[in-house]
Amino acid sequence: MSIIIAIIVFSLLVFIHELGHFLLAKKNGIRVVEFSIGFGPRLFSFEKGDTRYSLKLLFFGGSCQMLSEDFFDEEDVEKDKEHSFESKSVWSRMSVVLAGPVFNFLLAWVLAVIVMGGAGYDRPEISHVEKDSAAEQAGLQEGDLIRKFNGEKINLGREIAVELYVHPITQEDVEIVYERDGKEYTAVISPVYQEHYAIGISYSTQNNQAAQVASVTENGPFEQAGGRQGDIITAINGTEIQNSEELYNYIQEHPFENKEVTITVDSDGEERQLTLTPALSSQGYSMGFVYNTYRYEASAWETVKYSFAEIKYQIVSVFKSLGMLFKGKLGVDDFTGPVGIVDIIGTTYESAKEDGAWMTFLNVANIAILLSANLGVMNLLPIPGVDGGRFVFLLIEAVFRKRVPKKFEGVVTAVCMLLIMLFAVFIMYQDIRRLL
Question: Annotated catalytic, 271?
Answer without folding.
Answer: no
